[in-house]
Amino acid sequence: MNPxxxxxxxxxxxxxMDVIHSRGQATAAxxxxxxxxxxxxxAVRALLRILExxxxxxxxxxxxxxxxxxxxxxxxxxxxxxxxxxxxxxxxSVSQAVAALLTTPEKEISETELNELxxxxxxxxxxxx
Amino acid sequence: MNPxxxxxxxxxxxxxMDVIHSRGQATAAxxxxxxxxxxxxxAVRALLRILExxxxxxxxxxxxxxxxxxxxxxxxxxxxxxxxxxxxxxxxSVSQAVAALLTTPEKEISETELNELxxxxxxxxxxxx
DNA sequence: GTTCATGTGCTAAAAAATTAGCACCACCTG
DNA sequence: CAGGTGGTGCTAATTTTTTAGCACATGAAC
Lengths: 129, 129
Description:
about 130 residues, DNA-binding, 7 helices, Arc Repressor Mutant, subunit A, mainly alpha, homodimer, 2 domains, three-stranded antiparallel sheet
């Protein structure tokens, strides 16, 4: 899902895509339970069908229930979402976005994670990027 | 603008907020020029007025022209946007989001920027976070 | 078998979003 | 001054989105 396609989404469509992305997959009931100001079950299903028609979602059957997953890969979705934020809010500067993340007050980063990030920075240096 | 408020935005509203955030401020004509599949000028103005009524934007007059700016601070908007992506696509893991940014293929990070990020990681270590 | 709970496909109505157009204003140029 | 250009406020029509409800299907429990 590239940024242009996400911009096509209406309010509810986008809320639903966010729910499914955050869980990786979801049934209609799970989507319903996670939506702000939730409508009825049949409203959710109608929107899921629309999102599938538009190509954003697909479904498989698990028993009697449809389970919906994003059509694009998780990695692709992640990169697209990040790029949109970098472009929109950080004038395209990846380093500023990283810096903002590193200084975010909400989340502690463990020693192990800091080491991993350290390695990535070292790699970036080695690759001349 | 916290994530819940952004979720209230309709398709066009969100496109417009993105334009204004990426520029820092914009006139109606600038918004119009930057929109995908642009409507007419008066349609853009009507939406800007709606966004102002909802509290997302404010305007000041520059000569004869209205210039619209986000109601929330740039820093606040950045953090909100990042948090949404971290929560939705990275299960709340800041370090994974940072790692994804560091491995993004699109953008080169300069030596100076790498040093700055290095410093931020060092600070995170010193502060025990 | 029946009943109940929960699922689906589909549709149309209701609500919201989007759009364009009118009337008017401000400013600049000839 | 008049005309042209570009701005605004406002409204209503049009389009899109959202919603709920009907009919039917499925599976489990009795």
